[in-house]
Amino acid sequence: MTSVRQISDRLAIPVIVAPMFLVSTPAMVIAACREGLMGSFPAHGTRSTDVFESWLVEIEARMRQLEDEGSRPAPFAVNLVVHESNARFKGDLDLCVKHRVPVVLSSKSAPGEVVARVHDYGGVVFHDIASQRHAHKALEAGVDGLIAVTGGAGGHTGTLNPFALLNEVRRLFDGPVVLAGGMTTGRDVLAAQAMGADFAYFGTRFIATQESSASDGQKQMILESNASDIFFSAAVDGAPANWLTKSLLAAGADLDVLRTTLPGKIVASDQTRKRWKDIWTAGHGVGNIDDLPSTQALCLRLKQEYTQARLAFGQRLAGTGASG
Length: 324
Ligand SMILES: Cc1cc2nc3c(=O)[nH]c(=O)nc-3n(C[C@H](O)[C@H](O)[C@H](O)COP(=O)(O)O)c2cc1C
Prior knowledge:
alpha/beta, TIM Barrel, 14 helices, 15% strand, binds flavin mononucleotide
C-alpha cells in the first residue's frame, strides 16, 4: 500500500488543491501535480460516469507523459461523496478502483466501503470532518488521514475555529491531518504546519485561476469581495456552506429569510448544479485574492512564499530566542 509518507515525499510543498464542484478541471489538476502540489477534483463535478472516466484517462496519460519526460509529478486525488443523495457513488467508486486513483478524498457519510476497496489496490483515503465526533467515526472506518474543514472554508464548510478543531483532532489521532479553511498564501501553509497540520487544503484561492471553470462573474466577484462579503447558510442546499453575498442578492435571495430558514434535506448534485451556477460559493480567503493567474504561476508563487516564510520564521525564532 502507498504510505502517506510516500505521498508527502512526492509533494514540493504540503498543499492539496482541493476538489471544487464546477471549478476543478483536468487542466488544473495536471498543472498543480506538475508543480508538485496534489491536484484533485470531485467525481460528481463531471457530467456523467463516462465523463468522469475520460477525465481519469486524460490525467493519467499526462502524468505518464510527464514521468517519461523525467518529471516527478505529485499524485492526484478524487473526491467521492459518500451519501444517499449521490446516486453515482457506486459507479464512481468502481472507476476509482479500476484506475487505482492514488488518493481518494471522501466526504459526508462514513467511508467504510471506500476504505476497504481503496486499500485493496494500495490507495489512500482522507476523509472530510468538521468536528471531533466526525473524526472519531472516520477513524473507526479506517481512513488514513483526516481533512479538518474549519470555519471560513469555501463550499460546504465546518464552523469551528481551526485551532480548536485541530487540537481536538490531535487528542484522537497523530496521523496525517489536512487543514482547510481560508488559506491563500505560502505563509499560511507554514502556519498550518505550526498549528499541527501536515497538509494545507486550498480551495477558494484556485477558483481565481485561468484553468478554473468558474464563470467570469464568479471570478470577478471574488476579486471584489472581502471576508465580510461571505454569507454562511445551510438553507441554500441543505448543508452548511459559505456563499458570496452579492451572488445571493443577485439571485433574489432574502438574507433575513435565509438566516432564519432551517436547512432542508441535502440536495443531490444534479440539482445543486443548477443552484450553484447562479449562487456562488467561496470562503473567507477572498479578501486576499487580487488576480487571476494560471494554476502553474499560482503554484510557483505558493512554493516561493512558503520557502521565504520558512526562512523568515527561522530567522525570527533564532533572533528572539522564541524557539527555546
Ligand atoms: C466552489 C467550491 C466548490 C467546492 N466543491 C467541493 C466538492 O465538490 N467536494 C468537496 O469535498 N469539497 C468541495 N469544496 C470544498 C473544498 O474542497 C475545500 O474544503 C475548501 O475550498 C477549503 O477552503 P477554502 O475555500 O477557504 O480554501 C468546494 C469549495 C468551493 C470554494
